[in-house]
Amino acid sequence: LKPAAHALFKKLKDEELELLVQAVESRGAWESSCIWAPRGEPRGAKQMLPPQVLLCRLYRWPDLRQPHELKHLCYCAGGRGGCGDAATLCCNPHHFSRLAAPETPPPPYSKASCGPSWPDEPQHPGTQFMEFSYNGGDWCGKRLCSPLPDTSLSRSTVKDGYWCKLAYWEHRTRVGRLYTVQEASVNIFCELPRGSGFCLGQLPAAHRSRAVRRARGKIGRGLLLSQEPGGVWAYNRSEHPIFVSSPTLGPPDACRLTVLKVLPGYSAKVFDYEQAGGVGSQRLPGEGPCDPHSVRISFAKGWGPCYSRQFITSCPCWLEVLLNRPC
Questions:
Q1: Contact call for residues 37 and 60 (beta carbons, < 8 A)
Q2: Nearest Cα residue to 52 out of 98, 86, 18, 14
Q3: Rounded distance, CA 293 to CA 282, Å?
Q4: CA 299, 166, 229, 55 torsion-angle sign
Q5: Fewest CB within a 10 Å sphere: which of 60, 180, 184, 204?
Q6: Residues 6 or more apart from 210 whose CB is under 8 A from it?
Q7: Do 1 and 54 contact (CB within 8 A), yes or no?
Q8: Structural domains of the chain sorted by starting position, each given as residue range(s) with its CATH number in brackets
Q9: Where are the beta strands (DSSP E) in 154-293?
Q10: pLDDT tens digits for 14-71?
């Protein structure tokens, strides 16, 4: 890669080289500017790679091969066709993510039981919803409680003008209030050097367990959630995997819950508006009645048929994304 990189660096302006150094040194900790490079492949190199593939392979993913393995992040002007021209493209390695794909084969503990039974807890006057499991031919459910009066997860809570609302959970406990999102994208994080968004690190909670504290320590830069044409994307900008489930991740006739593992630096389309049109108010396999326009994201810990945790409420830290129906 060295000859190809050297040839590309010669083509970049001093300002572009300075931006590249800043992006690489920050490791994408904050949103940087586009780095415009001439289209085409640097000459004088045995391997002919597009500029964005070359720099992503050099600074982020040594096993990267083709441009179709990459996706522009929502804040990259090159992905929107702006700022540059037909002769240039953005090659900032931190303006791209890799596309997540389902695990093959699944983890070795996919034969786990339906999980431990939940102890009885005092009922609170707040919102309740049901989580179901399938055990020995029978559907069984447990009622989950949210003690705050403003934490309803029903569709009526999503007001016009907001494309989604975010609810943060620790196991079965809601922490904080709903966070409304009006901008096209939002950062969800515990520690982010620059930028704004939903800071989970500022949410207080009494009597956090050791498991929750460990999981919160892995959230770090968290994820970038963006509404883009046709659906919602999640970019994992932390140093640990995130796990995602939504009604549109699996086939409509799936007999079990689909949970997608998204590695650091990877993106996934976590909700498809067109596909969601056919879901309607159907029950989600393995979860019973729940919002068909919602996404659940667990930080660092997976759940579902392919994991030892059968329910997302067994995960220490997770996020509920309540989507507004597009106009």
A1: no
A2: 98
A3: 11
A4: negative
A5: 204
A6: none
A7: yes
A8: 2-99 (3.90.520.10), 127-323 (2.60.200.10)
A9: 164-170, 173-181, 185-189, 197-199, 223-228, 231-236, 242-245, 260-262, 266-272
A10: 999 999 999 999 888 888 899 999 886 555 545 578 999 999 999 999 999 999 999 9
Distances (CA, A) of 249 to 43, 88, 243, 272: 42, 35, 12, 8
Taking the chain, what is the end-to-end CA distance rounded to the nearest angstrom?
47
Per the listing, tokens 């102890």 go with 119
Q: How far is the C-alpha of 69 from the C-alpha of 178, rounded, in Å? A: 35
Whether residue 89 contacts residue 34, with contact meaning beta carbons closer than 8 Å, is answered with: no
Cβ burial of 228 (10 Å; 0-12, 13-18, 19+) is middle
CA angle 164, 322, 239 (to 5 degrees): 85
* Confidence band of 126 (pLDDT split at 50, 70, 90): very low
What is the spatial distance between Cα 224 and Cα 238, in angstroms, rounded to a whole number? 10
Residue of 274, 296, 276 whose CA lies nearest to 286: 296
102 φ/ψ angles, rounded to the nearest 5 degrees: -60, 145
CB 84 within 8 A of CB 128: no
**What is the residue whose two structure tokens read 């031919």?**
137
Give 104's contacts (C-beta < 8 A, 6+ positions apart). none
As to burial, measured by CB atoms within 10 angstroms (0-12 exposed, 13-18 middle, 19+ buried), residue 1 is middle
- Strands 266-272, 96-99: parallel, antiparallel or unpaired by DSSP? parallel
CA-wise closest residue to 187 among 231, 151, 236:
236
Q: Which of 111, 105, 104 is nearest to 310 (CA)?
A: 111
Residue 146 reports pLDDT greater than 90: no
How is 86-148 classified by DSSP, letter by letter? TTEEE--GGGEEEEP---SS--TTTT--S-PPPPP----SSEEEEEEEEETTEEEEEEEEE-S
Q: What is the largest CA-CA distance in the chain?
A: 71
